[in-house]
Amino acid sequence: MTDAPASPPASESPRLSARLDENDLPWPLRPWLLAAVGTLAGLIFYGLVDRDYGVGPAPLRDALAAFVAVATVVFLLGVERRRWHWAAGFALAWGAVIGLIAWHAAGYNVGGSPFEWPFWSGILAVLVATPLFQTRRDVAPDWRFWRLWQMPYARLHSHAWADAVIGAAGLAFVGITFLLIVLIGQMFKLIGIDLIERLLNGEWFGWMLAGAAFGGSVGLLRERDRLVATLQRLVMIVLAVLAPVLAAALVLFLLSLIGTGLTPLWESGFSTAALMMAAAAFAVLLANAAVGNGRDERAGNRLLHVAAAALVAAVLPLAAIAFYSMYLRVVQYGWTPERIWGVIAAAIALAYGAAGLWSVVRGRHDFDELLRPLQQKLAIGLMLLATILALPVLDFGAISTRDQLARLTSGAVKADKFDWAAMAFDFGPAGRRALEALEKSPQKERAGLAKIALKAKYRGEAPQSDPRRGDDAVVAAKPIEDKLRVLPAGAALAPDAYAAIDESGYCLSQPCIAYRIDDDHIVVARLGDHVTLFERVAVTRQWRQYDEHPPSLAPATLGTAVDLAKATVEVRPVARRQLFVNGKPLGDNFP
Question: What are residue 385's DSSP bridge partners?
């Protein structure tokens, strides 16, 4: 079903306008207006992101910056003279949604970055929603947007491809503009005029120039959308030529798995799920390029049409492999936000694969006639799902925290292999609350590791789940009394000496030797070539650590292969010679 045109045909366009839809009036001022909008948005965006990042996160400014960026890009891509206020409202609404998502994401984890998985899910929703809006704007007699499934597929498909082509061309134009301005600036610099170079060195000018270039280029291309349609068709033809190549490769790959099984996929060292999802995405892209907007645009070459059917049918087994790969990861290592997103993506691919296979089996040569309306419904469902998942409705961090804690409590994962860094930096408030509870655990190892993870200012400081760092994490979590081998045999250290060594952090992640010289001097050594001296200050009776090696304690090269728990350790008197001037030592000692 197709709705009637929303407005009467426009008068004949002037020469500089070549509109594809006769209902769209020419808009000669569009490039200048969009360039002005892009320029103003670039300046506002710069004002929001220009700050000293050392002072800490600024979620509100990040949210406002995301609002400006998304609202501007959506408006530039989607505005028409006809119903321009619809485009403005649509852009502002989605800008507000993405701003809310960015604000929540920026305050979710310790780093304060808005670019978390919900943010990218929101961007996906915007990308899918924009051609849906454009199509509904073109054909709707009113604002009843819930009738999205009744829109003409050919126009929807055309808008999606046109947005991609125009967006890519706009970005390319921005790059060319910067290169041109740099060239002009260097030319003038040769004769002593460096104004343009100084402007380019200012970030404010760069953002304004980028906004103006993108807006102006989009406006120019929209006024010549017949040319864009030709370019779009050319891109689709080029991609369609690649369809038989990918189809043959996927068929051979899937047939090979019958003989090899899936085991080599898990042993390859690559992310099987990511690779299968990427292959499925390319299969969908090339299949749509081959079948076109409708029967009239279907590839006339029989080989291309068969290849498109093979690509559509191959999506389901690829998605099944990706889903099974994610299932194995979850069984082996438990849930994390990243794996939840991966399972959802694989489930979406499974839905598309099932629809595609059904279309091929049921429709055969005319499979694309059945697939197109299904793709439209899937696109609407994807937009709604991506929006819901992006909003702070479901807390994937809390789900992951409960699962990982259950694995730790049950003994499925040991404390030294537990992903403390993910708990502190990836699971949001729920993960940090769990660490605070574990910090009070009667099990010293867990409590120590949780304490280190909570104190970590960046991910590298937290105990990692990487087995190569497991020993360091265990040592770091131990009390200082368990890290020190006190010599000579039978000697003991006072509690304040232990506290001074622990506070210094000298033995944080490595076992150490503490050799007691007398009541006021302790020599401490660790693996490597560093030796330090702890000395009790006579007046305050508090311990202090020398920052440099005292002259009487030359560095000892221990090496990393020495077992300090069993090594023979002793203190020997060493004769040395040194130059003295007026009774004061000068320079280093020598043989």
Answer: none
The answer to whether the beta carbons of residues 86 and 137 sit under 8 Å apart is yes
Q: Per residue in 508-525, pLDDT tens?
A: 667 788 888 888 888 888
- For residue 553, the model assigns a pLDDT of 47
Place of tokens 């299932």: 327
Mean local confidence (pLDDT), 173-189: 90
**Residue 26: its pLDDT value, please?**
77
For residue 15, the SS3 value is coil
Which of 206, 223, 240 terminates a domain? The answer is 223
Condensed to tens digits (0 to 9), the pLDDT of residues 479-502 reads 777 778 888 888 888 888 888 887
89, 216: one domain: yes
**Same domain, yes or no: 413 and 495:** no
**Same domain flag for 432 and 542:** no
Same domain flag for 158 and 67: yes
In a domain, 359, yes or no: no
Question: What is the DSSP pairing of strand 512-518 with strand 484-487?
Answer: parallel
Domain span at 433: 396-477
Phi, psi of 394 (to 5 degrees): -105, 135
Express as a percent the part of the chain with pLDDT over 90: 30
Q: What's the pLDDT score for residue 12? A: 43
DSSP helix, strand, coil percent of the chain (3-state; round to 5): 65, 5, 30
Instruction: Say if residues 468 and 426 touch (Cβ distance below 8 Å).
Output: no
Phi, psi of 334 (to 5 degrees): 85, 180
Residue with tokens 């697939």: 371
Q: 37, 244 in Cβ contact below 8 A?
A: no
Give the mean model confidence (pLDDT) for residues 443-465. 76
pLDDT at 466: 46
> What pLDDT score does 23 carry?
65
Mean pLDDT calculated for residue range 395-409: 92
Q: What angle do CA 417, 419, 423 make, to 5 degrees?
A: 150
- Tokens found for residue 380: 């609407």
**430 in the same domain as 549:** no
Dihedral sign computed on CA atoms, order 256, 262, 268, 272: positive
| DSSP string computed for 493-526 | --HHHHHHHHHHTTTSSS-EEEEEEETTEEEEEE
Look-up of token digits 């965006």? 45
- Tokens encoding 422: 């993910």
* Element of type H or E holding 532: strand 531-536
- Evaluate the CA torsion angle 143, 148, 150, 151 in order and state its sign: positive
Give the angle subtended at the CA of 406 by the CAs of 400 and 410, to the nearest 5°: 150
Does 557 lie in the same domain as 466? no
pLDDT of residue 588: 67
Position 171 in a domain: yes
40 and 151 belong to one structural domain: yes
Backbone angles phi, psi at 587, to 5 degrees: 75, -175
36 part of a folded domain: yes
Q: Which of 477, 510, 529 is the last residue before a domain boundary? A: 477
CA distance 445 to 478: 6
Look up residue 287 and give its two tokens: 């299949």
Residues 418 and 547 occupy one common structural domain: no
544 within a domain of the structure (yes/no): yes
**How many domains is the chain built from?**
3
